[in-house]
Structures are given as C-alpha cells and as structure tokens.
Amino acid sequence: MPKKYKLPAGTIRTTSLDVAALAGVSQSAVSRAFTPGASISPTTRDKVLDAARKLNYVPNSIASSLITHRSNIVALILGDLHNPFYTHVLEAFGREVQARDRQLLVFTLNDEQETDDAIMRLLRYQVDGVILTSAQMSTQMVGMCQNRGIPLVLFNRYIPQSGTFGVRCDNAWGGRQIAEAFLRAGAKSFAMITGDPKGTTSKDRVAGFVERLIESGVSRASIRSYEGDSTYEGASDAVQRMMADPEGLPDALFGINDTMAMGAMDTLRHQFGLSIPEDIMVAGFDDIPEGARLPYQLTTVRQPINRMVRATIDHLSLDGPAQSTDLPHDLPIRGRVVWRSTVPGDPPAEV
Amino acid sequence: MPKKYKLPAGTIRTTSLDVAALAGVSQSAVSRAFTPGASISPTTRDKVLDAARKLNYVPNSIASSLITHRSNIVALILGDLHNPFYTHVLEAFGREVQARDRQLLVFTLNDEQETDDAIMRLLRYQVDGVILTSAQMSTQMVGMCQNRGIPLVLFNRYIPQSGTFGVRCDNAWGGRQIAEAFLRAGAKSFAMITGDPKGTTSKDRVAGFVERLIESGVSRASIRSYEGDSTYEGASDAVQRMMADPEGLPDALFGINDTMAMGAMDTLRHQFGLSIPEDIMVAGFDDIPEGARLPYQLTTVRQPINRMVRATIDHLSLDGPAQSTDLPHDLPIRGRVVWRSTVPGDPPAEV
DNA sequence: CTGAAAGCGCTTACAG
DNA sequence: CTGAAAGCGCTTACAG
Q1: pLDDT at position B19, please?
Q2: Is residue B325 included in any domain, yes or no?
Q3: Are the C-beta atoms of residues B115 and B109 closer than 8 Å to each other?
Q4: Domain named HTH lacI-type: which ranges (chains A, B) (predicted)?
Q5: What is the pLDDT of residue B163?
Q6: pLDDT one-digit tens code per residue, A221-253
Q7: What's the pLDDT tens digit per position in B238-266?
Q8: Distance between CA B24 and CA B201 in Å, rounded?
C-alpha cells in the first residue's frame, strides 16, 4: 500500500495504527493509553505501552492539537534580551511552562513595532496563550487574540483601557523606596537615568521616585533626568551628559534598571574617577545577580520574578476554563529593597 | 449545524471554508491563495485575500503541518542561560530562524541529564530540526531523531562517533592564541580556570592552550588548572583555591570563558587587591560584550556567532532535501583574537 | 486555473 | 472497558 503523500526519503513514521496492530488492539485503545484519565484497563494499557516502546512510538501532538484545539504551546514575546533581567524571566517561564507539559514558542523582536507582526505569526501556530514582555501592541491585535479565545497576559507592562491583563512589579512603590533611601542618606540633589519613555515600567518608577521626593520637600529643579535607552551603553552616554551639565554632580543617581545603574557606575568611576557612594550614591532596580557582584554591590529593588511569572501563567488558565474578565486588569506585585553598599547608611523604613 | 467537538465558549474560529463561502470560491482556492507558488489566478487570489481580511482569517498551521509533515518549528535546547554568550546565541538563532518563516520552540534545561527528556518531548511536536547547545545526549536519542528524519545539529560541541553533525568554534586554535599572547607578554607560569569537564568546548580550549605552551618549552608543572563550573561564581571560588596554593601567584590566568575570566578579575582585584595586568595577566574566550566594558577590557577570542549560527541553520536544510551524510561531521570555525588590555604588550602573530 | 475528494494522525461521542 | 467511525482544518494529486 503506497503512501499517497510524499515523506522525506528514508524516514520511518510510526503511527498509533502501527502500535495498535502490534498490540492487537484498536487504534482508539492506543490513543486512550496515552491520554491521562482515559477509560482503559491496565492490561490493555500495558500491552499498548509495550508495543509503543518496541516501535519507538511517540504520539503526534500536531494531530491531537488539530482535534483538541490545544497546541500545548505558549508564545513568549521577548524584546530586550540584552538585559539580564529578561534572561531570568525567560528561564522562569521555561521552567514553569515545562512543568505544565507545555513548551515556549519564542518570538524575539528586533525592532520596536514588530509586536503586531509577531502576533500575526503566532496566531498561525494556534498557541494556547501569549505572554508579551515587549513594547506596545495595537488594540486590533488584542482583538485578534480575544476573538480566538487566546489568553494574553502582559508581563511588566500594561496598556490602559485595552481590556488586557497585566502582571507587573509595583514599580511606583519601588521608586518611592529608592527615593526614601537616598533622602535618609542625606541626598539633596538627584538625577535619574530613564528607560524607554513609552514603556510604563520606566514611567512608573520615575513617578514613584519623584513623588516621594516632592512629598519630602525636594524641589523639582533639583531632580534631573537623562534618557538611558534601558541599556548599559545608553546609561554611560547619559552620565556623559550629566557630567557636562553646569548644575554639577548630583548627590544621588537612580538608574531605572540595574543594567543602567551598572553602566553609570562604571562610567562615573573609570572615566570620571569618582567614588561610590562617597562622591555620588547610586541605586538601581530589578536585582539582577550581576548587580550583587563585588565591583557593584548595588542597592536596588528586587522584582519578585517567580511570583510574577506564576501569576502570569495562572492567568493563562492553561488547564480549565478561561479566567473571568471581571478580574482587575492589572496586578502589581510588590518587591523589596535589597540593601547593599552604593547608598550609605542603614536601610530606611518602607514608605 | 451544531459543532460536534466542543470549542471554548465565545470563541470564533474562522476556517478556510468560511473564507471560501464569502469569496465564492472553493476551499482549495483559499488554500492556494495562501500557498506561495501555487497555481491560482491573480483575480481569484485577490478575492480570497479580501474575504480573508474581512474575516480576520489566519491559516491554521497545525492543520497544514499534519499533511505537509512540516511544522515550521525548530527546537532549540539551551543549557547555560546564565552565560551571556548563550543569550546572544538565542538572539542570533531567533533572528535567522524567523527570517526563514519558522519559529523557535525553546527547551530550557535545569539539570544536566535532561537532554534526553527534552528530545522525547520535542519529538511530539514534530519539529523540523533540532539545535542542541547543551550537554550530552544518548546515542539512542540521536537514533530517534535520525529515524524520523529530523535533522540534528550540535552547536559548539560534538559527540565523537555518534554520526551527529556539529558546528563549533575552533576552540583548540583559540586556546593556542591565548597561550601565544601570554608567552609574548613574558609569562612563565600559568593557570587555567576550566568549565564543564565533560564538555568538548572546555577540553579543546585547554588542549590548545597547553599544547602551545609545551611546544614553547614550558613545563607541565608550571601550568595549573582549577575547575570553575563555567560560571562567574565558580571562577571566583577557583581563584580562592588558586590563591591558597603554595605555588603562589601565576603570571597568567586563562579563563576558559569570558564570564569566568570576569569573575576571576573581580575576585583578584577586590578580594586580593591585585592589579591586572601588572600583578597577573588574564584572558578569556567568547568575546561577550560585557568583557569589553570599562572595568574589564578583557583580551579574548571572539566566537564568530553569526557564521556559526548560519552554518547550523544551513545544515538543518529547512528547505530542500536533507544534507547528505557524507559531509564532515564536525565543522570548526575559526574566530579571531580580540586584543584589549588584560594582557600587556602588542598582539602576537597567529600560531 | 479550478473544484471535488482523499487523507494527514489523532480524539471522542456513540453504541455496545 | 472497547471498537468503528466521524471529523479537526488543511494540502494536493486528479480530472477537468
């Protein structure tokens, strides 16, 4: 019986029919043997599993997906791979998704406005859920996912009034803690190196930071801001601009993420010969392990990655029915301050 | 006409049949409109594409995969995510695979011996190819892939006599260059911080390094070796052991990868107050961007990632027939020395 | 260039 | 608990 559709030459393709023949059971029985909880006797199951082992049979999940409408694939859209924080995010999602017998289909974005394009591509793969860690997406694309019943969760960002659900660190709270730390250490003038001006993450950290300073009577004029592009190199450039500023050196510098704080520290020390925290105190945000290394010992805010990742995956409702849409559309999770040596003195109380 | 199989509630599922109905053509025509190179008139194609747009139709690649035996998915097995080198590898593979209209299904490994398990899982997804960057796999698993006609390429490792194809950096050559650089700078005693003792990468770099030193009359006794676990922290521990060694400080230290070289530098400087290269010269391997930062300025060997990634994907033969197996089973690609300031003096000639 | 029809490899009501 | 059969949404020979 010649196959009607061409297969790559020399390829052996063992199907449930082959296993059924060897085990002397129906094809349905083979399917049931591989379906947890299916109605099958232990005897039959063992016969099938034996035959499957002999034939090196592995069920074809493409075929089962077609009928179950579940691909067991979760799409992860990654923007900023160069920030080690996102390496840890990828690792955490990989671990959690694999623990649920799914796999990650990764979409790496080169340009900013590629998110919509990535969504169009992942729709073809019939993914069971989408995790978006990158830039903005259009409301049209949100609709494409919703129509198809594909759960979408934003990680560490939110799109107001889009009806999308977002899990994130409580960035404004974190910004406040850093402000408080600087104030207790006696700082009077401040600078920030900011990230993506369109992203909510950087904006919220800045907002919390500034808010707390203003509350404490600091004048807006003594809070400067430089764009750092979220990167080490961008922060280094921002420090050049800060140092060229006639205002002079601020007492305290807030890098909106650890990578930028590290870039700023290296530039302040090696290019301007300054000491930290003696000449200028520095703090970051994220608590990437690199910030704990000997040369940095960076005071920062820990993002509770594992809790954030689990909350994200829970919202995907990979098993069971979709989450009700009455839930709050934004779930900020509070981290904690990690006190190291780039800010002098003792940790202040939470504010 | 009620659907026989349950769909998640509130979900709209548009198929080629719906598009065909709206466009007034057959379902075959819809399929052809979305198949590049298919036999279809421009008029019909436009009618179909119009209807598809109105209905937000996206072809279901699960269904097409079932019949074409191509999932358009490439499996990438990643081990050491904490080494920034592999972040760049992931990014390069993502870029190249997406440029070929495929996506990466990522398998992150926590433990060492999970590779075989990952292979079993990816077989279900009917991937078009497998890229393995992690630890060893059994020859049985190699056979599983070969039987199914799934191309498998090892990235930066090889398994002798397994019949598997590997693309890698010419690690022995790189090790020789570092040895030569140290020798020209006047070093007489040497130490290495090594990586995974089972991996070929570390072994080959060590072998090339030692070989060149021996050639130049260096005695084996003046070449020490410490295990560094391929990590920053492992290298830091290795330096502790090296400094406790009664042999005293060597003239030159080779970190088998940049991450370890950086861990060693930080520990030598901040914990032992040593200067680099005045007290001890250091070199690494990989040329990760972090090694070029101000505090490190690390002399190293660049791995030609882009060439390696392209060679890997070419060997997958995603389009066209599978590669002949007469090809050499191991393709070492030569990098180049990146000369910075952790080794004194001028760059030596290649050896 | 076009349509009707078979079939990819499974899951799952249905009827024993 | 079990098997025969329908069907998931496509691609592709086949016959016009």
Answers
A1: 97
A2: yes
A3: yes
A4: 14-68
A5: 78
A6: 999 999 999 999 999 999 999 999 999 899 999
A7: 999 999 999 989 999 999 999 999 999 99
A8: 60
Of A139, A86, A79, nearest in space to A112 by CA: A79
Q: Which of A124, A125, A266 sits opposite B294 (nearest CB)?
A: A266
Give me B286's structure tokens.
Answer: 């990989």
Same domain, A175 and A298: yes
Nucleotides of C under 7 A from a protein CB: 1-13
Tell me, yes or no, whether A75 lies in a domain.
Answer: yes
* B269 & B185 share domain: yes
Average pLDDT over residues B319-336: 76
Backbone angles phi, psi at B225, to 5 degrees: -140, 135
Strands B73-78 and B103-108, by their bridges, are parallel
Q: How far is the CA of B126 from the C1' of D14 (A)?
A: 29
B161 alpha-carbon distance from chain centroid: 21
Does A180 share its domain with A224? yes
Domain count, chain B: 3
Compute CA distances B26 → A66, A183, B1, B39, B44, whole Å: 22, 72, 20, 14, 10
CATH number at residue B293: 3.40.50.2300
Which residue has tokens 């996912």?
A: A145
- Comparing CA positions, the residue from A266, A251, A259 lying closest to residue A228 is A259
Which residues of chain B make contact with A110, given a CB cutoff of 8 A? Answer: 95
Which residue in B95, B130, B51, B57 sits closest to A118, CA to CA? B95
Query: Side chain identity at A340, as an amino acid letter?
Result: R
